[in-house]
Fold this protein.
Amino acid sequence: MSREWLRKRKKDPFYKQAKVEGYNSRAAYKLMELNERLSLFSAGSKVLDLGAAPGGWSQFALEVVGQRGLVVAVDLVPFSGVKGVEFVQGDIEAASTIEEILRFSNEFDCVLSDAAPHLSGNRNLDLGRALALNWAVLKISVVLLRKGGSTVVKMFRGDELIELKEGFSDRFRRVEEIKPRSSVTKSNEIYVAFRGFLGWQED
């Protein structure tokens, strides 16, 4: 991380607000807006947060679903400060990770992923890695989502974004792109919402 990046982050109003309100990351405000606009989950919902560290999305999701709901967070590395969130440490592409998730529930109302691959600076390579990551998220979704449920992933603009949308569009009623106000303006990131899961289908 460069000094310039750290300087800009400290001036960022969402970063400051997250510090004041106790969220583990400014990304929590992205999910707030996404949920406000799309009604992804509500009180009592079951939410699966893949690639959850440092936990900002899990924190907000838990606030919404409350004690009657469930939030399961999955990541390769553990994180702290999210009391009440169930945590699974593991690779989302590993069968053992899926088995651990199933210990908590075999059906979720919403699957979330704000994860991104480690960026190399090579645009084509990074887009390919992002596609592979989100493809894995959607493969889990079509197994663990309830009928009518939703999945949201972070992607970057490019042909890979089109490929991801087309690859799973037949499993959902609606697929749409959203850029939250709290996303960095110059960032190429975009969120893709797959809503209205049509139910499990055998390939």
Remarks:
- The chain has one domain: 3-197.
- The mean pLDDT is 86.
- Helices lie at 3-11, 13-21, 28-38, 56-65, 95-102, 123-144, 159-168.
- The two ends are 43 Å apart (CA to CA).
